[in-house]
Specification:
By secondary structure, the chain is α+β, with helices and mostly antiparallel strands. The chain contains 2 helices and 12 strands. It has helices spanning 2-54, 273-281, and strands at residues 57-73, 84-100, 104-121, 132-147, 152-162, 172-182, 188-201, 211-224, 227-238, 246-258, 261-272, 301-311. The chain has a 12-stranded antiparallel β-barrel with strand order 1-2-3-4-5-6-7-8-9-10-11-12. A hairpin with a 5-residue loop joins strand 6 (172-182) and strand 7 (188-201). The chain is flat, with a radius of gyration of 29 Å. The relative contact order is 0.12.
Length: 312
């Protein structure tokens, strides 16, 4: 009798385990089918969004990143400043307003990246207890084009770049020029303007000079599902002196997790020999020999910001 009972229990346990395994496999198979269906639906949604973006009329959008941290220490002797309060606050905003008509387009965009840092040493009464501006980027672009075809246009461009926390318009750069624009896809713009004047506004006349040259700008702004990203490369190549040329490349990414809130990352690179020379001339005391375009170190400038992101 005991053997019979044990045999029945063993058969029941095996059947239950087998049945459960079969159920799990069936559920996984059904889940895979659902995932394939979701991917197909998302592909159709993205295709429809592309058609919507291509329609004439205004398209307006923006996304930005906020990063912040603060800290305070008291009698923390293992570090050089045991009593201090510190903080880092940064914010970046990318916005655009584009008008697309049958015969012309008008594209406008702006990028702002601001960052403040504070390190207040409580044991030093002479240091600053305020947030000081560090990263300081302000850039606006306006591009008008008269269409020769669906992808090519005669265009005019205005671009202004400066800082706004410190040294507003010192330096400031204003590019005005005409040429051609190529729009290979809906969200990408390639501007080539061989007739361009680069106005430079600055107090330091020894380092900055306006000149004529060629302007090239490449911008790609796209939203795919929960991901927003923008890359913008802008360069001015002077016809008068290569030392007056410059370029800036800014990349922004945002990933939405919940109700417009997510994670964001931005980094930028810049090459500008005029700014390198102005920075060297501003040192106290001025280095010997005196800095010039021929002997100044022209290192690549860079910045990055990571933090919370909000998509408008």
């Amino acid at each position: 009798m005991r053997k019979l009972v044990c045999t029945i229990l063993a058969i029941y346990a095996f059947s239950a385990t087998y049945g459960q395994t079969k159920t799990i496999d069936e559920l996984k198979a059904a889940q895979a089918t659902k995932k394939d269906s979701i991917a197909a639906i998302q592909a159709r949604v993205d295709a429809l969004q592309g058609e919507i973006d291509a329609l004439p009329g205004w398209k307006i959008g923006a996304f930005g990143t906020i990063g912040a941290n603060i800290s305070g220490f008291k009698n923390w002797y293992s570090q050089g400043t045991p009593n201090n309060s510190s903080g880092n606050i940064g914010a970046t905003v990318n916005a655009f307003a584009n008008l697309n008509k049958e015969k012309f387009f008008w594209r406008n965009s702006g990028n702002i990246n601001l960052q403040w840092v504070k390190l207040d040493n409580k044991d030093d009464t002479t240091d600053s207890d305020s947030f000081e501006g560090t990263t300081d980027v302000f850039n606006i672009v306006s591009l008008y084009g008269y269409k020769l075809s669906e992808k090519f246009a005669i265009s005019a461009l205005g671009e202004y770049r400066t800082s706004i926390i410190n040294n507003f318009n010192d330096p400031g750069y204003l590019d005005l020029g005409i040429g051609a624009t190529w729009t290979p896809v809906t969200d990408m713009v390639v501007v080539i303007h061989p007739l361009n004047y680069n106005f430079v506004f600055a107090d330091e006349d020894l380092a900055y000079e306006s000149s004529t040259g060629a302007k090239i700008l490449v911008d790609y702004t796209r939203q795919i599902g929960a991901v927003n990203f923008k890359t913008n490369f802008s360069t001015f190549q002077s016809y008068e002196n290569s030392d007056l040329s410059n370029w800036t490349w800014i990349n922004s990414f945002g990933y939405t997790l919940w109700k417009g809130i997510g994670l964001g990352f931005e980094f930028g690179l810049r090459d500008n020999k005029q700014e390198s020379l102005a920075n060297a001339l501003a040192q106290t005391p001025v280095p010997t020999p005196a800095p010039t375009f021929d002997n100044v170190d022209n290192d690549i400038q860079s910045y990055w910001l990571f933090g919370l992101n909000y998509a408008f």
